[in-house]
Design a protein that fits this description.
It is built from 9 helices and 10 strands. By secondary structure, it is an alpha+beta fold. The strands form 2 sheets. Strands 3-8-10-9-5-6-4-7 form an 8-stranded antiparallel sheet, covered by helices on one side.
Length: 295
Amino acid sequence: MKSVSPFGVQDSPSITALHRVQVVNRAADYIAENLGESIDLDDVSRAAGMSKFHLHRVFKENVGTTLGRYLAEARLKAALHLLSAPETASMSTLDVALQVGFEDASAFSRSFQRRYGLTPSSLRQGNHPREFPVSSPVSPPLLPGVTVVSLPEFWIYGYEVGGLKNRTFTNEAPAGFRLAWDTIQRHGVEGIAGDLALPTYSWVLPDEAWKLLCGFRSSERLDHRGMTKRLVRSGKWLRARHTGPIPTRWQTWTRLQDQQLRWGRPEDGREPFEEEAPPDPHRPERMACDVYFPC
């Protein structure tokens, strides 16, 4: 029998994979935005839109660790960033501890040393922390159809469109790509790749706030002031190919986000994107794209 949480969300094993990812993302975003506060599970479940009981299960299934361990790891990762960044060098250990939600410096230092193998002061003296997954010494296996690739740094140039509906830009994207390719032809731009789409990525945004950058990839910085540009840093990426109708691409995005949540989201500012893929020579009529998530 289905039950309904106080937030109007049905707690049922039949909830979709997309909804589970949305719930986990809302919980993770709430934690990230409130690290300096005393975070209560009631508040997290309210932000996620799911009862505490089911949120605990869904989070563990999708991320591979409990909410409590995820919160502890998020606090320590934020502390590591603050202790390592030159612009926060003037912050004391106590200031850093309070900033990420610890009540005192001693408890923070003990937790930090257990996690990274050195004290906060030792880190600031130039020593390097050890890195290891908190939940398991072995990373979760790759989901079917997902691979890991390395990409060099590149630029994306194009035009943004809005009007998100049902988490797709099926109606709006063609106009953005037409404008981008018209600019390419008029200016004689060379050395570019095929269609590439970079969305404003956060499941908690209202539909009207979403934008999609429709453009192309360039290994060099171009001088086109009228076009929107984004720098994509080099690194490792999760990749999966989607073959089929454009409105169903969200299914591949969901699968890759599920994989990313299992491995842990990187904190280097890279955002997921999709790029036109070469057609299948055996079935050239079928549209294909590669979806990339940073890892």
